[in-house]
Design brief:
Its EC number is 6.1.1.19. GO terms for molecular function: arginine-tRNA ligase activity; ATP binding. The protein has helices at residues 3-21, 50-53, 55-58, 62-71, 100-110, 140-158, 174-190, 205-218, 227-252, 270-280, 316-328, 346-355, 392-399, 401-408, 421-425, 432-452, 469-490, 495-514, 523-547, and strands at 35-36, 46-48, 80-86, 90-95, 124-128, 162-169, 259-262, 284-287, 290-293, 304-307, 333-339, 363-368, 371-375, 378-380, 417-420. Helix 1 (3-21) crosses helix 4 (62-71), helix 7 (174-190) crosses helix 9 and helix 10 (270-280) crosses helix 11 (316-328). Helix content is 48%, strand content 13%. The radius of gyration is 29 Å and the shape is globular. The chain binds one RNA strand through helix 7, strand 9, strand 10, strand 15 and helix 16.
Length: 555
RNA sequence: GUCCCAGUAGCUCAGCUGGAUAGAGCAACAGCCUUCUAAGCUGUGGGUCGCAGGUUCGAAUCCUGCCUGGGACGCCA
């Protein structure tokens, strides 16, 4: 628990005592004490709405209740500087701010660890994300999911969860056959033959490149080969090449997985096992020569086919087995990051989990809304089929990893994202990523300057000298960081960190313009401010690290 | 037709376990570099929080209905 949380906790405890002492409510009647941090500084450090909540219970006017509470409050114990009743009955607390003195030493000591907490209590969480079919390149939309998933994992890890990152490889099923036929067509075309792409073929450049590689390695060896043998080879070759591409792209995007899970591995016995479990519970029936799952019993719109008339599984079937496997691995939470086009799939998956006998509250699906790409003020349509979408690789080359990642985790995942290419690649102040990085670089320059001027940067400091408004603002903001990370993790909202880092940068820039840090006429204050700057730098760097963005020392 | 997401300043979006005067960036306008990086700062203007009801002491936030935009509704994956 950090210093800020401690003061908050003590204050809450004191409020509870005061309410009871004032005979306003019994322990049982007492609602949860909510302390909010007011946006408006004139409303104090914390504001409580307890008086309004108690109005009905105590049968008194809120402002009267507020006065009663204050009169029974041990202000010394709660380190209150001043307390006021305001508006309809808010109690505004102005704290003594003793705790601010502890923030800098805490940060300097923790360094790269600052922001880490044990909020998650070591809970085991698995995040499955990206999981793109190995049939082509990663595109813009996938990139958003990749950035979201990766940052979410970073944040969970920092907040004390045990995180495992997993990629589900769809290496079985129809799409892989289509891949083989697409490669075949491209291969023959490369050799000048008239070959048509299959109807559901993959038209992307990646497939053409794979065909070219085969030609380079094997020449026309496959033209007259046995058809079955040829397809089998193209399937494996295409699959491996695609996977390699995907892995390379993700690595370039700074996304790494702990586990690559193959759909094929389920076919040995996991699928039959899962089906058996469902059957045992009577959630399976036969109709029209197909096998059905009674997902409607768990709120789905209609029942779903598991085994098709032709004897093959639908996509759902191995996926059920996959989720059973995940849950059997003992995770407290499994989080799936899916594209918006898969949201209709959620009810049947949740139904399956319940039917298998698992609690469905362990299962979370984060839907990543679409990305609309804009360039020159015009919307560019994305289409996987025609292969015209912007590839992740090209995006990285164009705007850089830092800008791309930052943009993707600025917005909430369930809001559609307009990605402005011109803005992302602009090396100007319109581009928010530079704003934050610039704050970090500025501090580095100051520390460098300090050395050049012979100012000792490691000397002792007296943090109580930092009483100017901009200094106090910075200190308070710094103190919030661990809570921000913990909240982002708990609510699965990584963009909270992006927002925090931006706000901290704003305060730093504002401070920078108002205050001269290196003041040779006031060594003590200079030492304190240097310590403050180091703390801001560490916090910015840690925040950027969570987002997966670099923190440059010079710009 | 059913389901999911969104609708907040000119634009892009935060805010949503209900709280005080609804925020930020960009754009517009007016200032600030002989001083640690002006990729910065300071200030001004700008809003029926899609619409209508409801719950509440209090609603951008919760509930219902409707409107608009996007997406999904397959024995495809």
């Amino acid at each position: 628990m950090n210093v800020l949380e401690q003061t908050e906790d003590i204050l809450k405890q004191e409020i509870i005592e005061a309410v009871i002492k004032a005979n306003l409510a019994t322990k049982e009647q007492l609602p949860d004490i909510v302390l909010e941090k007011p946006k408006d500084k004139s409303h104090g450090d914390f504001a409580a709405n307890i008086a309004m909540q108690l109005a009905r219970i105590a049968k008194k006017a809120p402002r009267q209740i507020a006065d009663d509470i204050i009169n029974h409050l041990d202000q010394t114990k709660a380190s209150i500087e001043k307390v006021e009743v305001a508006g309809p009955g808010f109690i505004n607390f102005f704290m003594k701010n003793d705790f601010l003195g502890d923030i800098i030493p805490t940060i300097l000591k923790a360094e790269t660890e600052y922001g880490r907490t044990n909020a998650g209590n070591g809970e085991k969480v698995q995040v499955e994300f990206v999981s793109v079919n190995p049939t082509g390149d990663l595109h813009l939309g996938h990139a958003r999911g990749a950035a979201y998933g990766d940052v979410l994992c970073n944040v969970l890890d920092a907040a004390g969860y045990q995180v495992e990152r997993e990629y589900y490889i769809n290496d079985a099923g129809n799409q892989i056959d289509n891949l083989a036929y697409s490669v075949e067509a491209r291969y023959l075309q490369e050799l000048g033959q008239d070959a048509e792409m299959p109807e559901d073929g993959y038209h992307g450049q990646a497939i053409i490149d794979i065909a070219k590689k085969i030609v380079a390695e094997d020449g026309d060896k496959w033209v007259n080969a046995d058809k079955e043998e040829r397809i089998a080879h193209f399937k494996e070759y295409g699959l491996q090449s695609s996977l390699e591409n995907i892995k390379n792209d993700l690595q370039a995007f700074r996304v790494e997985f702990d586990n690559w899970f193959s759909e094929r591995s389920l076919y040995k016995d996991k699928i039959t096992e899962a089906l058996k479990t469902l059957d045992k519970e009577n959630y399976i029936y036969e109709k029209d020569d197909a096998t059905w799952f009674k997902s409607t019993e768990f709120g789905d719109d209609k029942d779903r086919v598991l085994v098709k008339k032709d004897g093959n599984y639908t996509y759902l079937t191995p996926d059920i087995a996959y989720h059973k496997d995940k849950l059997d691995r003992g995770f407290d939470q499994i989080i799936n990051v899916w594209g918006a086009d898969h949201h209709g799939y959620v009810p049947r998956m949740r139904a399956a989990i319940q039917a298998l006998g698992y609690p469905s509250d362990k299962f979370h699906v984060k839907i990543i809304q679409m990305v609309n790409l804009f360039e020159g003020g015009e919307k560019i349509r994305m289409s996987k089929r025609t292969g015209k979408a912007v590839a992740l690789r090209d995006l990285i080359e164009d705007v850089g990893v830092d800008a791309a990642r930052y943009f993707f985790v600025t917005r909430s995942n369930d809001s559609q994202l307009d990605f402005d290419m011109d803005l992302a690649r602009s090396q100007s102040n319109d581009n928010p990523i530079f704003y934050v990085q610039y704050a970090h670089a500025r501090i580095c320059t100051m520390l460098e300057q300090a050395k050049n001027k012979g100012i000792e940067t490691d000397s002792t400091y007296d943090a109580t000298l930092l009483t100017a408004e901009k200094e106090v603002d910075l200190l308070k903001k710094l103190g919030e960081f661990p809570q921000v990370v913990a909240e982002a993790a708990e609510k699965h909202l990584p963009h909270k960190v992006t927002q925090y880092v931006f706000d901290l940068a704003t305060l730093l820039h504002s401070f920078y313009n108002a205050v001269k840090v290196l003041d040779q006429d006031n060594e003590e204050l200079t030492s304190a401010r240097i310590a403050l700057m180091k703390s801001v730098r560490i916090t910015l760097a840690n925040g950027l690290q969570l987002i997966g963005v670099t923190a440059p020392e010079k710009m």
